[in-house]
Amino acid sequence: MKIICVGRNYAAHAAELKNDVPKEPVIFLKPDTARLKSGETFYLPSFTRNVHYEAELLVRINRMGKFIEEAFAHKYYNEVSVGIDFTARDVQSALKAKGLPWERAKAFDGSAAIGEWVKLDALNKDIGDLNFSLEKNGERVQNGHTSHMLFGVDALIANISTFITLKVGDVIFTGTPAGVSSVKRGDTLRCCLEQKPVFTCVVD
Ligand code: MG
Question: 6 C-alpha to center of ligand 1: Å?
Fold first, then answer.
């Protein structure tokens, strides 16, 4: 499986990192070794002094496809969750300044936290009408709604599949809303989808 991530997909988050709003989705990848399951410990890497959480709505692909039309994209997933795109922000800033790729900041082991999968049918809600949130030590620090995405899930699938074949089990991280900040040793993080917990981890 591969993990496909979208950057700058919420205008308020692009603004907080002083990035322009993109004309087409910003896409990057994480390897399968980046996966962190709910209940596992997130270990702070030694090469960074500033790891940020980025809570994101996740979509799991359930059909292989390329050049998927936006109108048919909904046929390629039926499960969603919430996860965290852990980012070594200091490393990323240095790489961005030099125009270098982001993998050292974004693709390290444990950097792709993936919550429990929830069937869209069970939620009985449209993909464009989902609420998700992140709590740090019991306090809500991020709150997102899929209607605020610059590129909705179906548009993302259409765009990504113009250059990457999507396969069963691939996971798309659809971008983070505003409110990103640092984690430190001892923090507890919890992600909710439609107010129900789907992911939790302790930072060490
Ligand atoms: Mg992100």
Answer: 6
For residue 19, the model assigns a pLDDT of 84
pLDDT confidence of residue 202:
98
79 Cα–ligand 1 center, Å? 19
d(CA 57, CA 172): 8
pLDDT computed for residue 161 by the predictor: 98
Instruction: Indicate whether 15 pLDDT > 90.
Output: no
pLDDT of residue 166 exceeding 90, the answer is yes
Q: How far is the CA of 175 from the centre of ligand 1 (A)?
A: 5
CA 57 / ligand 1 centre spacing (Å):
10
Distance from the alpha carbon of residue 189 to the mean position of ligand 1, in angstroms: 16
**Structural contact between residues 77 and 130, judged by C-beta atoms closer than 8 angstroms:** no
CA–centroid distance, residue 126 to ligand 1 (Å)? 22
CATH number for 3-202 (one of 3.90.850.10, 2.30.30.100, 1.10.260.40, 1.20.1250.20): it is: 3.90.850.10
Residue spans of the domains in the chain: they are: 3-202
What's the CA-to-centroid distance between 183 and ligand 1, angstroms? 15
pLDDT at 22: 83
- Extended strands (E) in the chain: 3-7, 26-30, 35-37, 51-53, 55-61, 77-85, 87-88, 112-114, 118-119, 131-136, 139-145, 171-173, 181-182, 188-193, 196-202
